[in-house]
Amino acid sequence: MNYKTTMNKSLLLLLFASIFASACSSDDDPEPENETEIITRVEMKFTNTLNTSEVVTAKVDDPDGPGGNDPIFTHPTLKPGTVYSVSIELFNDLEGEDITEEVQEEDDEHQFFFIPTGDIFTTIAYDDVDDFGRPVGLSSIFTTGVAGTGTLRVVLRHMPNKTAAGVAEGIINNAGGDTDVDIIFNVTVQ
Amino acid sequence: MQLKSLFPLYFLFSSVLIHFSFFFEASGQDCSAELILEIQDADNADPLSGAAVWINQLDKGQAADNNGIVKFSTLCVGQKYTVDIHFIGYEELRIEFVAKETQKIQVKLNQSNIVLSEVVVDGERQIAITQATQQLRGQALSRSRGKSLGESLKDLPGLNSLQTGPGISKPVIQGLHSNRILILNNGIRQEGQQWGAEHAPEIDPFVASKITVIKGAEGVKYGPDAIGGVIILEPEDLRINKKFGGEINTAGMTNSRMGVFSTIFEGNISTLNNFGWRVQASVKRGGDFQAPDYNLMNTGVKELNFSLAGGWNTDNKGLEIFFSRFNTDIGILRSAHIGNLTDLEDAIGRNEPFYQRDFSYEIDNPRQELKHSLLKLNGYWTAPNLGKIKAKYGGQWNLRREFDVRRGGRSDRAAIDMDLNTHSLDLGLEHKAIGSLKGEVGITGIYQQNRNVPGTGVDPLIPFFNQFTTGIFLIEKYIKDNWQLEFGARYDHRELEVKTFNESNQLVNPKYSFDNHTFSIGGQIDLNESIRLSSNLGSAWRPPHVSELFSNGLHHGVAAIERGLLYEGGILSDVENIEAIKAESSLKWVNTLSINKNKWSAVANPYIQRINNFVYLEPKPGEFVLTVRGAFPLQQYVQTDAQLVGFDGTVNYDFTTDLNATLSYSMVRANDLNKNEAIIWMPADRYNFSLRKNFSGKFSPFIEGSVSHVARQSRVSDDRDFTAAPDAYQLIDLALGGSTTVGSNNLSLFIDVENLMNTSYRDYMNRLRYYADELGRNISIRFQYQF
Fold first, then answer.
1. Do A19 and B355 touch (CB under 8 A)?
2. Per-residue pLDDT tens over the stretch B366-392
3. β-pairing, B584-597 with B571-572?
4. B55: part of which helix (H) or strand (E)?
5. What predicted TM-score, i.e. pTM, was given to this entire model?
6. Is B629's CB within 8 Å of A34's CB?
7. Can you tell me whether residue B3 is helix, strand or coil?
8. Pairwise CA distance, residues A104 & B77, whole Å
């Protein structure tokens, strides 16, 4: 009996010891995760089609990513009655990545939408298509109206329904999908 | 609510049932026969108070009183009944008899040599019997086979489920869930990533033959977290006396076209004395669920689970080993993956989810892939002059990978990849009775570590942590003829070490420790032979979980930035400064009044609970975090003092032995005492009325109809949520079934129709209520064969 009791006790001790010995072994420190998918900078270049050396860049820059400090906006000032060729570039500066390439590679799953207020633009037209001949919006043509101020909302949707009514014409209402970029510029036309 | 609106339905059911009764043999017999069972220990004739008696034909049970007596008074003269008598530590007994006007049967139970009842099933024998409890067993459990744990329990009074679409369901006990309740799987504290509202318990309910819910605080017995209650899943006893047996369950459902198949095989080994074994496996496959008007795209589920058990015991000692593995792949409604607040508002504005497809079994992103393994080793030894010494080790390995809809071919990379390991050791002594005093002392240790698997390309939701919790407790019961008292006390200590990164990506390594003591006191008295009153006052505590301390980032499903207690204005504040953060401490008073008189039986559970330092996620209306993706509303974890007051209860009336009606009701009012407003995400009031008719005959068929009404959760003002709470709704369910015996084997068939009227509705406790309706009509057929 005594022998058995000792057996039981030592068994238990062994169990206890082995569990907590294995559990308390030292660990390597974790590494910070590389946030590869975030977009921290959006640049929208307006090139005057009559004078290609005249380039206006609208920019949003959020170097620390979501949260922390608010993004910094560089708002554009454009000329009235002018046709601009517009290109958009996307970057992840946290990881030094060019996200534009990713959107180009998956252009059938992405589309930009441009939503202006006021009379600052007379027309906005897509200038690129995906493999199915549907617009993407990395390149587009903007024509400014008369002098004044207004806003331009730029939205990038991932996996929108590109065949829904109005979507090919740049109307966002039926597009669905989830939003990757949603920014608003204050635009001055003078 | 309009109770009036329920009355026409009541009449509808009554007439349906009456019509049905013509199909079966009409019985004009006398159904007031009385049966008195006197249940005793076969050796010393001690009355077995608390033994459970189950009449299969009535699907009704009762527990023996302190004199070991159980009384039924609505049996039909001349009819044959089978009665199962079950008591922990004793062999289960089945008796068959033909009802006479009055008869008294003396039942003697033999102490079992069954391994499990002595060793494993800690749950039941240690439940403070002064607690309010609820059980799912027998036919009710058979009829829930194939459902997840949360779904199986949600219709019990006082219980709800917190859902993320049809595939993810978390049990809610009297308003509390996640880290505030505890799940005991086969005697081991379930440790998964239960802090997340989208993380359902990684448990296959097929491992259990009985599920018990304790609705009171059980901090003394189970340590931290058991603030709201405990769910106990117990398997059937291992049979060392039975050569071979088992059970086969199959289920098929029209909604989601789900198929479920489960088997259990068990027995002993002829060449090895005192040894029992069991092998169990289940498989489940379902596709897109359907709301009445559309398919819920990408809500399929795949599951493959198994468990193995073996045990050996002699008169005074035993050993057992158990291993289980749970594997699942769950799809999440595609339309619930959104980019920003505008997307959420668009989704709320749509009548139907944006993404739709024809029915498919395909599971795409977003989805969850989970694996949970549990290993248990335990043993006991009865020391003649001391009592029973018990030891139990539990090891759990939980892998959670969540896949999101991502850009640039990253969809095959998990966005969340967490590896949680837990080891626990419990040592206890059930001391020999000292006069009328019985009790137990125990010490426990739990070590837990969370590791984030690198390479997700997304900041982890919760950081690296190591956590060690120890506790010591004492529980004593003083038992007299018609009353008993119990009390307990416990001391716990927890150490938490975290490794995470601050804003400048520097590693910070704070260490915290928490200490707490808890107590409980309870009593039970039989006022007369039909009224029993019990009351329990218990404290419990819960240190804040790392997710509540360190969360900082975007929560996709609700398009909100969530910040933990340690973040102030978006910056990780002084992480060592724990002064500002206190553990939640709770005091819950639960009462149970049960009445059994003639044709009436009723149970009422009123309760009141105070939780100090209650942690919750507070929406900050008007505060937005601006990002390149748009503006996100801010939600901040804060602490307050909370009070929960509630009531749940059931009234049952037997019109005849074969026809009975049940009315149940649950309500809870939860308030933030500092801000004097209702706490969000608390269940709405619920009423359920059901009518059941049993028929005599070879298959003992039954038909049951029920109407439930769920009120609108109108206590939280609309501006504290993204949209107004959904409207009240009514649902009608219908069930048919029967069982028969083939030799010594038992065969059952059940047909259940849920949401008979195919009503479109949304439920407040579903986190996907912003996006889609609840499920439409579902007809399920279940077949069970026990051999």
1. no
2. 999 999 999 999 999 999 889 999 999
3. unpaired
4. strand B52-55
5. 0.85
6. no
7. helix
8. 81
